[in-house]
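Reviewer 2 asked us to include a model.

Predict the structure of this chain.
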Amino acid sequence: MNKFLFCLGVLLTGLKLVYGSTQNMICYYDSKAYERNGPSQYSIPDLEVALQFCTHLVYGYAGIKPETFQLTSLNNNLDIQKRHFATITSLKEKYPHIKFLLSVGGDKDVENPDKYLELLEAGRLKQTVFIESARDLLRSYNFDGLDLAFQLPRNKPRKVHSDVGMAWKSFKKFFTGDFVVDKKSDEHKEQFTDLVESLKTAFRPHDLMLTLTVLPNVNSSWYYNAPALVNNLDYVNLAAFDFLTPERNPEEADFTAPLYELYDQNRLPHLNINFQVENWLLQRVPPNKIVLGVPSYGRAWKMTTDSGTTGLPVVPATEGAAPAGPQTKTPGLLNWAEICIKLPNPGNINLKGADAPIRRISDPTKRYGTYAFRPADNGENGMWVSYEDPDTASNKAGYVKVKNLGGVALFDLTMDDFRGQCTGDKYPMLRAIKYRLL
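Predicted model (structure tokens):
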């Protein structure tokens, strides 16, 4: 009898893994990864290992032409891009349970980012060009829908203030009000709502999905009329991370994606996941349409002698981004494999300087996140990293289950340890999330 129950449990777990749970596992895929060199290069076989865990694949990224607002490839070689579109969507035959979406914008369409506001202001005729080009491209390459990751203006970064500075800021704010990023945000909100409605109307006869990705530090209240949008969107993917980054906040380091608010050290109350989720729920958005975004990377600051030796955030006197990793090659950005290799292990435990291990500090409360650091040695080689690991990613998937949200979106597959460099397990972040959602 016990053996029978054990076998039944294994069978049910397998069926859940194949056919999914009530929550979705939305996998973002940065298509530029296939152009990388070395161990960070990402191939179709690498992608196929991940697809067994995904319910949706979001292909990133397309852009829009500033002159015509047509949806277009961001690859200079259009023929290569078209072949890659077709290669990816051909996987639908092998993985029929997965929906393949094309995302427009993100942080990749960097040529004249103001064009996304210009599209909202362009009027019905030019917006129709965008809508029809999007519909035609999706249908030509057999995508199942479009993800709107528009580059809208970000909120103002937090500034470091002394006690006197904080007092002056409060006094000044009393007379001047909040910093205004976009004086026409009310108009843009209405225009975005109209655009979404028009897109959905054009997509509906072809059974095409439409989703929204809320990029980090875009104030939802400025641009998204949630009650008016929700019926025309399949999901809202909240990229609730990168609240602080070395680029935006070079002088202090802190948790980049805390689950809940931290009440000390003058932290801003909205820079946490729970605030962002509750903001959408309070606007009558059904929880099953809200998907929580989790990063598969960390943000790394350069610590100085004045940053201290405890590593306890908020870390003062940082000097922007830490040096780039060998795979991501971007200052201040480390993928999970790069971080994992820096944690204490038999290969680095006796190393010094820039090769010395970083000390991991876990979060027993499961409210804020994990960080690791290496104090500066004579002013050199200091590093502080806020990051997700499989444990924290699993914890956030648990939050999604408790809140009965629509699922988790991993940003993105190519930043997870897809080669199993750290422990031998491929995609440890993706697996940890998926198994928690079962």
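The mean pLDDT is 91. The chain has one domain: 22-296+388-437. We have added this to the supplementary material.
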